[in-house]
Design goal:
With 119 residues, the protein is α+β, with helices and mostly antiparallel strands. It is built from 3 helices and 4 strands; from the N terminus they run H-E-E-H-H-E-E. It folds into 2 domains: 37 residues, Ribbon (Pemi-like Protein 1, Chain: D); 70 residues, no CATH class. The strands form 2 sheets. It has a two-stranded antiparallel sheet. The protein has a two-stranded antiparallel sheet with strand order 3-4.
Length: 119
């Protein structure tokens, strides 16, 4: 049995043997829930290894397709994409308030983010 002390702001340090046994390291995500009179902490993976590999491949493909685009152009494209998303969210909230929300997915229009689906 390992004993841990609750620190300031409710923080608790999971004892090293338990962290090592579960392969937990700084920044990992866990689920904490109550079961009876106990707290159960379960490690969580937010992205599977397979999906992470797919994401890396997509990122590599995007990088290859956009060779020659300057860092400044990428920032401008991202800023435009964020502005579009914010405008869409504003419009969606406005439509929801008026009862005409359709929620159709579409693709982004900026050169660096072209072809990335948004919902």
């Amino acid at each position: 049995m390992a004993i841990a002390k609750i620190l300031e702001h409710g923080q608790i340090t999971i004892p090293k043997p338990i962290r090592e046994s579960l392969g937990l390291k700084k920044g990992d995500v866990v689920d904490a829930r109550i079961e009876g009179d106990s707290v159960v902490i379960t490690p969580q993976k937010l992205v599977t290894s397979e999906n992470w590999e797919k994401l890396l491949q997509v990122m590599n493909n995007v990088h290859e397709e956009n060779r020659g685009i300057s860092e400044e152009e990428v920032y401008q494209d991202v800023e435009r994409a964020v502005a579009e998303l914010r405008q869409e969210e504003y419009d969606k909230q406005k439509k929801t308030a008026s009862g005409e929300n359709h929620g159709n997915p579409r693709r982004t229009n900026t050169p660096y983010t072209r072809g990335i689906h948004r919902f």
